[in-house]
């Protein structure tokens, strides 16, 4: 594939969760562009097939696993499949996440359990199953958390709590990773242009009777950001972080959010 910046990534292997669309898809494609053999995981077989075909058409190497990562057995199964397909694991990117927004008093037990089951426990289980393989290869973990982990908000009680837990987990495992030679970091994206943001912009445009461009400008002002992010912004950071050039990132919780996080 073209545009290889990080030769240290050639023929490494990575698992990317939530790779059927949005940020995870961009991460998988970017890592493949850098020569990584990528296992893409999510539930939507059709979208995974399209992403793998795109990688292969550009000369990359990829496979997919149809996994519901809320299932406690799924992460270990994903690790097994990856080792069988590629012979080992160098990089794990925990990106899959779907937490419900809304009024705290209306969010149900099931909403809370579901949010933690996928993004937090899915990551815990995947890292635990992959750890011996990562140790063998002095590999890397990247947890895609989110700005809500540092800056909670009333509408985002579940997402903020899950992301804060991810940040704490990242620090704990980075500490363990010093002894085991495994690099562990987290990235906090701000508003990134994926399906969820598009839906929000559409709703705002309809609600205010304005066009999409004006809705975008209004939401940017409201969120106090320089611009919205693109999935590629996050993918580029992941590729740098897990390359040899990014190895001194360790236990880092990196905000990439257009200035949305105001605190130090
Ligand atoms: N976009 C943003 O502005 C933003 C900001 C901060 C943080 N983040 C975080 O970044 C990550 C990606 O966000 P995104 O906007 O790219 O999300 P997205 O477009 O909604 O994609 C979510 C991905 O997770 C997968 N997924 C959902 N449920 C799953 C399950 N049970 N098992 C396995 N995979 C599952 C989805 O695939 P299937 O439906 O095919 O399973 C999809 O590939 C999330 O963790 C999110 O919290 C995003």
Structure characterization notes:
The protein is an alpha/beta fold. The chain folds into 2 domains: 8-191 and 230-255, Rossmann fold, CATH 3.40.50.720; 193-228, no CATH class. Helices cover 49% and strands 14% of the residues. It contains 8 helices and 7 strands, in the order E-H-E-H-E-H-E-H-E-H-E-H-H-H-E. Strand 1 (13-17), helix 1 (22-33) and strand 2 form a beta-alpha-beta unit. Helix 3 (74-86) packs parallel to helix 4 (109-137) and helix 6 (195-208) packs across helix 7. The termini are far apart. NADP nicotinamide-adenine-dinucleotide phosphate binds next to helix 1, helix 4 and helix 6.
Throw out a few tags for this protein.
single chain; 264 residues; alpha/beta; Rossmann fold; seven-stranded parallel sheet; 7 strands; binds NADP nicotinamide-adenine-dinucleotide phosphate
Summarize the main sheet. Answer: 7 strands, parallel
Distance between the termini: 39 Å
Which residues sit in consecutive blocks of at least 5 with pLDDT less than 50? none
Number of helices: 8
So, CATH architecture of the largest domain?
3-Layer(aba) Sandwich
CATH topology of the largest domain: Rossmann fold
Give the strand order of the largest sheet, numbering strands 1, 2, ... along the chain.
3-2-1-4-5-6-7
Estimated structural class: alpha/beta
What is the arithmetic mean of pLDDT?
Answer: 96
CATH class membership of the largest domain: Alpha Beta
Total beta-strand segments = 7
Radius of gyration: 18 Å
List the ions, cofactors and other small molecules found in this model.
NADP nicotinamide-adenine-dinucleotide phosphate
CATH homologous superfamily heading of the largest domain: NAD(P)-binding Rossmann-like Domain
Q: What level of helicity do the residues show?
A: 40-55%
Counted up, domains total 2
* Backbone shape: globular
Order of helices and strands: EHEHEHEHEHEHHHE
């Amino acid at each position: 594939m073209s545009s290889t910046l990080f030769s240290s990534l050639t023929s490494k292997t990575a698992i990317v969760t939530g790779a059927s669309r949005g940020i995870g898809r961009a991460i998988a494609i970017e890592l493949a562009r850098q020569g990584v053999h990528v296992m893409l995981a999510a539930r939507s077989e059709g979208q995974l097939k399209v992403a793998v075909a795109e990688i292969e058409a550009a000369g990359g190497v990829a496979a997919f696993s149809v996994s519901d990562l809320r299932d406690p057995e799924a992460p270990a199964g994903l690790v097994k499949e990856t080792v069988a397909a590629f012979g080992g694991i160098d990089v794990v990117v925990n990106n899959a996440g779907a937490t419900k927004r809304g009024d705290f008093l209306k969010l149900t037990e099931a909403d809370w359990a579901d949010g933690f089951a996928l993004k937090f426990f899915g990551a815990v289980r995947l890292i635990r199953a992959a750890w011996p393989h990562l140790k063998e290869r002095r590999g890397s973990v990247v947890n895609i958390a989110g700005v809500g982990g540092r800056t909670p908000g009333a509408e985002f009680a579940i997402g903020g709590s899950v992301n804060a837990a991810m940040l704490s987990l990242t620090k704990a495992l980075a500490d363990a990773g010093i002894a085991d030679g495994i690099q562990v970091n987290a990235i906090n994206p701000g508003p990134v242009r994926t399906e969820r943001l598009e839906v929000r912009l559409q709703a705002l445009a309809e609600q205010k009777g304005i066009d999409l461009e004006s809705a975008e400008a209004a939401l940017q002002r409201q969120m106090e950001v320089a611009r919205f992010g693109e999935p590629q912004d996050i993918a580029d950071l992941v590729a740098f972080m897990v390359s040899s050039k990014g190895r001194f990132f360790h236990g880092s919780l990196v905000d990439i959010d257009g200035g949305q996080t105001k605190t130090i």
